[in-house]
TrEMBL record:
<protein>
    <submittedName>
        <fullName>Uncharacterized protein</fullName>
    </submittedName>
</protein>
């Protein structure tokens, strides 16, 4: 159990920042498109 818990946590921590970056990029693109095409 102790070996599986840290592994899952490590994977989650790595996926969280990746998803956050993706969301941030998507939002930035959406805002740019809206600003460029009012």
């Amino acid at each position: 159990s102790a070996g599986g818990d840290p592994l899952l946590l490590r994977i989650k921590v790595r996926i969280v920042p990746l998803w956050r970056s993706h969301e941030g990029k998507l939002i930035a693109v959406s805002n740019k498109v809206e600003f460029g095409n009012p």
